[in-house]
Amino acid sequence: MLPAEQPTFCRICEPTCGLIATVEDGRLIKLRPDKEHPITAGFSCPKGLEFVHVQNDQDRVLHPLRRRPDGGFEQISWETALSEIGARLREIRREHGGESIGWYGGNPTAFSHSHALWLGWFLRGIGSRHLYTPNTQDTSSRFVASALLYGSPVVVPVPDLDRTDFLLLIGTNPLVSRGSLISAGNLRERFTEIVARGGRVVVVDPRRTETANAFEHVAVRPDGDAWLLLAMLHVIFTEGLADEAAIAAQTTGNEALRAAADRCPPELAEPRCGVPAADIRGLARAFATAPTAAAHGRTGACLGAHATLVNYLIDALTIVTGNLDKEGGLLFGRGTVDLTRIAHLAGVDTYDTYRSRVGDLPEVIGQLPAPLMAAEIETPGKGQLRALIVSAGNPVLSVPGSTGLERALGKLDLQVGIDLYLNETHKHADYVLPAATFLERDDLVIAALDFHLKPFVQWTEAVVPPRGEARPDWEIIDDLARELGFAAVSGLATKLVGTGRLGRLALRAFAPAAGRVTPALLIDLLIRTGRDGDRFGLRRGGLSLKKLKANPRGVVLAEHLEGGMLRRRVFHRGHHVRLDGDVIERELDRLLGSPPPDVDYPLLLIGRRDVRSHNSWMHNTPKHRDPERRQWAMVHPKDAADIGLSDGELVRVRTAKGSIEVPARVTDEVVQGCIAVPHGWGHLDGGWQIANAAGGANVNEVLPAEAADLERASGMAHLNGVPVRIEAAAVSG
Ligand SMILES: Nc1nc2c(c(=O)[nH]1)N[C@H]1C(S)=C(S)[C@@H](COP(=O)(O)OP(=O)(O)OC[C@H]3O[C@@H](n4cnc5c(=O)[nH]c(N)nc54)[C@H](O)[C@@H]3O)O[C@H]1N2
Ligand SMILES: Nc1nc2c(c(=O)[nH]1)N[C@H]1C(S)=C(S)[C@@H](COP(=O)(O)OP(=O)(O)OC[C@H]3O[C@@H](n4cnc5c(=O)[nH]c(N)nc54)[C@H](O)[C@@H]3O)O[C@H]1N2
Ligand code: SF4
Ligand SMILES: [Mo]
């Protein structure tokens, strides 16, 4: 058969770039960027194109595997795997209750139409609250700030890149990460256009990153952002630069923020954030007086010791300068599927409605802090975690406290993995089930819809059949749910459409497939009842799945996001943004009362991401045979000289939890006193041969992981700005 080309899109990260897949005899031959894609227009990155190696990788898990008594795995049939896992889950539920069964769903679950939804409903079905994800290593602090400010954790405004005059980026490196909580294709181009039209792009980062290097850089001390932002607000309030009309019209409770800012003049902030007071003043004035301005932060803003506060302050800066919900400022997303509504109907637009059994930390969108998993497994009592399913995740490399987690996983009654590979977390798994890749399933990335700067929606069919016996994640979860006597997704349909005329029409359309609710059916329902939907014939020309299928490159729904959305996006009384509240006031006090740096651990460790790497799982591509592509730490020349460390030597990084050794690059790219070490490495005993050979050290082994180390407000792990000591270890081989 001749090779066929099919438009689809990548599902590794937020831009969800349009790709063209070349397929021959049911096998993927090549991926290239789709020049005609309405959003990404020929943009893509090496990870997306190298996914062809993941797709065809000889190391992929292609059959259900069962642990043998000798420790190895043996291939079994799906029927055997599902019935044995089902029997063991039923037994555990009978003996210890559904609350003893947990799930860790990793990062790729967010890039699927169904994975996160299905597993969430699975746990609800069995009555468990043990839901863990990367969120406490990624976004929980952001969600908590949103819950406090806007009344819903899932309302996260995006900077209006195409019209802003001043973009302040805090702790994000979009030229490498490609943007997060933003979905917009080629960001370098968008930022360059801001500058070309006379605007500014300023990057606040302890490292002169690729993005900082291409634009303006403010070199902040790790974890110094709250001081910097609060001092900027000090300048804005004391110099009369705040937009008082906007504050009065859009917010309540600004007094608490003013009072805290009052206590934080730039001179007080300078030694804490490392930015000279004069520069703080200049930055505050420039941001406040720009015709339009937007501040946006990501993981560098989300993983520090004051992460919830930093995220709150980032939005507060935009809000008090009159830039929220306005063109050129921060705008609320307008997904064709209303994410806030779905989250509400699914009961996950929550914050602190219950707390963890161990550590007494709040749930955020129905999820508990992943660093607690080890203690939840090892702490006896009602609700002790006894069975864990890990799908699309590698917590042994991605969650702090790896050594403790690995030990605890070995004590579970049952561990099941659902993945493309045997990763480090599956070392103790009793079963590993083969998942289909994103190219082997149909899809529509619901979670990204609200982050598109240009409202857009695209559906893709699978481009190749699953290899071996791999199955889409939702189908595996659905089958497991059936083993336990329920269907994973049920009842949502009625909730979605209500009981009116639309509801009756929708349910009639839905009925024939009542046997199994597939993602395609659910998406059709969501789209048709959504804001652009055809409402089952009630609105002519509206969207439906059928229409999306007829437009394989997707449908652009508007040129821009619009302002004036507070009434639809802010859920506090009167649709006012709330600037005060106990949590924020406590966090402000905690910051202002926080002790100066730890002299025993004088350096601060931060993370780093590489172009070809994606957390822990893109390390099995041929490029990773090249030692240049492996893990290394960045150390400032002065810090290196202090310990007699030369470029290329191994640096030993020691925290209160232990030490790791990583080859060092001596560079003034990082500020003095800061060391940058990528996470996601430390492959030694996974089933991925190239990754195993690439090795590396697992930085999460030495990062703080006890309940007491997590941020009280959000359960967030502290992964950036962690005090460390460094020593020269040895010459690296
Ligand atoms: N190539 C590649 N792309 C990715 C990923 C990947 O692993 N590789 N991962 C994806 C995922 S899961 C996510 S969540 C996104 C993350 O997207 P980003 O957050 O944009 O990704 P990072 O490159 O980690 O950028 C964080 C930046 O914060 C800086 N930083 C660290 N500590 C501090 C601090 O205390 N203050 C300030 N102001 N800055 C600080 C770091 O130096 C770094 O430059 O990227 C996604 N894209
Ligand atoms: N120290 C430190 N730790 C961090 C971070 C940091 O900056 N510093 N960043 C954090 C962030 S932002 C994130 S998102 C997490 C990521 O943490 P995790 O999600 O736990 O880890 P990943 O490395 O993304 O592992 C993803 C796994 O999913 C598998 N996979 C890929 N696609 C699919 C699929 O479609 N189905 C299934 N079933 N499996 C699939 C891959 O093979 C891989 O094993 O790491 C966090 N950890
Ligand atoms: S930036 Fe790269 S990895 Fe992310 S969606 Fe685009 S092609 Fe995929
Ligand atoms: Mo992430």
TrEMBL record:
<dbReference type="InterPro" id="IPR050612">
    <property type="entry name" value="Prok_Mopterin_Oxidored"/>
</dbReference>
<comment type="similarity">
    <text>Belongs to the prokaryotic molybdopterin-containing oxidoreductase family.</text>
</comment>
<dbReference type="Pfam" id="PF04879">
    <property type="entry name" value="Molybdop_Fe4S4"/>
</dbReference>
<feature type="domain" description="4Fe-4S Mo/W bis-MGD-type">
    <location>
        <begin position="3"/>
        <end position="59"/>
    </location>
</feature>
<dbReference type="InterPro" id="IPR006963">
    <property type="entry name" value="Mopterin_OxRdtase_4Fe-4S_dom"/>
</dbReference>
<dbReference type="Pfam" id="PF00384">
    <property type="entry name" value="Molybdopterin"/>
</dbReference>
<keyword id="KW-0408">Iron</keyword>
<protein>
    <submittedName>
        <fullName>Molybdopterin-dependent oxidoreductase</fullName>
    </submittedName>
</protein>
<dbReference type="InterPro" id="IPR006656">
    <property type="entry name" value="Mopterin_OxRdtase"/>
</dbReference>
<dbReference type="InterPro" id="IPR006657">
    <property type="entry name" value="MoPterin_dinucl-bd_dom"/>
</dbReference>
<keyword id="KW-0479">Metal-binding</keyword>
<dbReference type="InterPro" id="IPR009010">
    <property type="entry name" value="Asp_de-COase-like_dom_sf"/>
</dbReference>
<dbReference type="Pfam" id="PF01568">
    <property type="entry name" value="Molydop_binding"/>
</dbReference>
<keyword id="KW-0411">Iron-sulfur</keyword>
